[in-house]
């Protein structure tokens, strides 16, 4: 079995029209997602989303890369040490 690492993907959605595409990609990786939390921030018309995953590092990087290529979406990922 391939080694996995826990990671937290931070997502800022500045183009709300891209939410459907973002959710489609997250659904592709549903087997790795531990949980997610989304906070709409109406004062700035953005959404802040945190997604916790437990996946092989390559899969987490692929997910983050796909999300980061969506126009109007920014991502950062933090990995656990183990």
UniProtKB/TrEMBL annotation:
Tree of life domain: Bacteria
InterPro entries referenced in this protein's UniProt entry, alphabetically: Acetolactate_synth/TF_NikR_C, ACT-like_dom_sf, FeFe-hyd_TM1266
Pfam families, per the entry: TM1266-like
Protein name as catalogued: Iron-only hydrogenase system regulator
């Amino acid at each position: 079995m391939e080694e996995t690492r826990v990671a937290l993907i931070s997502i800022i959605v500045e183009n709300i029209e891209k939410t459907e595409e973002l959710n489609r990609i997250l659904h592709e990786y549903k087997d790795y997602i531990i949980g997610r939390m989304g906070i709409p921030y109406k004062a700035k018309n953005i959404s802040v989303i945190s997604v916790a995953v437990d996946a092989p590092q390559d899969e987490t990087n692929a997910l983050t890369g796909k999300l980061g290529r969506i126009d109007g979406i920014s991502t950062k990922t933090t990995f656990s040490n183990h």
